[in-house]
Every structure is written in structure tokens, then in C-alpha cells.
Design brief:
217 residues; Rossmann fold; two-stranded antiparallel sheet; 22% strand; globular; alpha/beta; seven-stranded mixed sheet
Length: 217
């Protein structure tokens, strides 16, 4: 059974992984007959109260919070290499742009968690596919833009697309359930909640993304 890594960034749209996107990705992976391998970095982050949408003043651990989505079956990303998995997928949520990197604050000048960069470059060197959902393509661009010029989509938001292109990546507009496939880099991206107004649209786009990732195996 092929193993597909799922890199989580916490638990909740405003400060971690978008839960709908993460769960839809896990379901899509299972439907493709593959095994999901959840992982996250063990570092702290600032918490957002999801009721008030304001900073709570707390800090929590990304790995511990991500374990909620993974039902406890999760690994520290620093202990995972490309040799352990056949592909990797990054759900969206602001955690992808705030916890795994700082694109949400710095845009094209963002820095990326070193273990995330390491794993991405290992996957590329091994010719193994990568999928990215919602805002996560911005993370991919920040990590790989200058060296690999990846082709990605976050939908049609002009401001975000412009920052992505400043990294050296290329952006292509895409419909809510569509995907953009960069065959050179074996990279598949889909807009999800960057455009979606219904969870059914999110799940359809993620299904399409995961299916394309599996075809690249």
C-alpha cells in the first residue's frame, strides 16, 4: 500500500490546519487505497480563539494540536524522510502560512520551517509527488520558488498570486474544484477554501487533487 504523508499545522482554520480540508484529504487518500501518514513539527504557536477570531494570548504545540485531527496517530516531521513515504500533501488553513512558514506576515520574503523545506526537497530529489491545498501552495512557493519555479494555484486572489510569483514560482488561476498540475515538479494544487463556499466544493477539489497525486506515483 502506498503511503502518503499529510503535513498538518495545528487544528483549526485561523491558527492551524483547516479541519474540513485535512479530513477531506485523509478521506480522499483512503479512497485511493493509500495509507495516510500524518506529521507535524513540534513547535509552539500563538492561539486564535475561533469563536471571537481574536488572539487568545495562549500558546500551544503544533504537533499536539495536529494529533487531534490524526486521532493521535502522528509523527514529528523531523523524524520523517522521503524514504518513508511515496507522496506528501499539505492541507490549508492559516497554520500553513503562519506556523509552517511566515508567508501570512512576510509574503514573498517568508521563511519556512527547516524540516518542511528538507522534506520537500527530498521529495523533489526522489521524484515523488507533492500536493498542496488552499493557501498551502504559498508555502510551497516560499520553500521552492527560487530554485524550482513551481507552477501552483491558490484560485484567483490577485494579491496572493502576486506575492507567490515574487518568490520565483508561477501562479495559474483555477476554478474551485479544479487542479493545476506541474508535471515537471510532480506538484498538484487546488484552491479549496480560497474559493469554496461549500464543503462539497472543498471535498470535490481535494478528491481531484489526491487522485492526480496518485497518478503521478
Amino acid at each position: 500500500m502506498k503511503k502518503i504523508g499529510v503535513v498538518l499545522s495545528g487544528c483549526g482554520v485561523f491558527d492551524g490546519s483547516e479541519i474540513h480540508e485535512a479530513v477531506c484529504a485523509l478521506l480522499a487518500i483512503d479512497r485511493q487505497g493509500c495509507e495516510a501518514v500524518c506529521m507535524a513539527p513540534s513547535v509552539d504557536f500563538a492561539v486564535t480563539d475561533h469563536l471571537t477570531k481574536q488572539a487568545s494570548g495562549e500558546t500551544r504545540n503544533i504537533l499536539m494540536e495536529s494529533a487531534r485531527i490524526a486521532r493521535g496517530n502522528i509523527r514529528d516531521i523531523r523524524d520523517v524522510s522521503a524514504a518513508d513515504i511515496d507522496a506528501v500533501i499539505f492541507p490549508g488553513g492559516f497554520g500553513a502560512a503562519k506556523n509552517l512558514c511566515d508567508f501570512a506576515v512576510k509574503g514573498a520574503a517568508a521563511t519556512v520551517n527547516p524540516d518542511v523545506v528538507r522534506l520537500l526537497k527530498e521529495m523533489l530529489a526522489a521524484g515523488k509527488p507533492i500536493g498542496a491545498i488552499c493557501i498551502a501552495p504559498a508555502l510551497i512557493s516560499a520553500a521552492l520558488g527560487s530554485d524550482y519555479a513551481p507552477l501552483v494555484t491558490i484560485g484567483s486572489d490577485a494579491g496572493t498570486a502576486a506575492e507567490i510569483e515574487k518568490t520565483g514560482a508561477k501562479h495559474q488561476n483555477c476554478s474551485v474544484t479544479g487542479v493545476v498540475v506541474d508535471r515537471k515538479n510532480k506538484l498538484v494544487t487546488t484552491p479549496a477554501y480560497m474559493l469554496a463556499t461549500r464543503i462539497s466544493e472543498v471535498c470535490e477539489g481535494i478528491d481531484n487533487c489526491v487522485r492526480e497525486v496518485v497518478t503521478l506515483l
